Amino acid sequence: MELEITTENFDELVLNSDKTVLVDFWADWCGPCKMLSPVIKQIAEERNDIVVGKVNVDEQPGLGVKYKIASIPTVIVFKNGEITNKSIGLVSKAELLSLLA
After folding, report:
1. Which residues form a coiled coil (predicted)?
2. How many domains does the chain have?
């Protein structure tokens, strides 16, 4: 399941999670984001050991600024509230899974 992450729930769902969290920063107008979305959804459905969330940077600009999102899609992996990995641009499922290793 993919969670919609907002400024209001970010700390609870991402920083305070006891699981690894994969966060996809995206926007409606972004073509590569639309191409990556089904891959993110697959990972969310297949991996119940992690949390998968999506941040719409147009609706949540504060999170985009806080995490210095200059290009989308950007995927950031958090563990114990800390960034452990990051990917910018359209990447394969295998590349995303390697971020979680």
Report:
1. none
2. 1
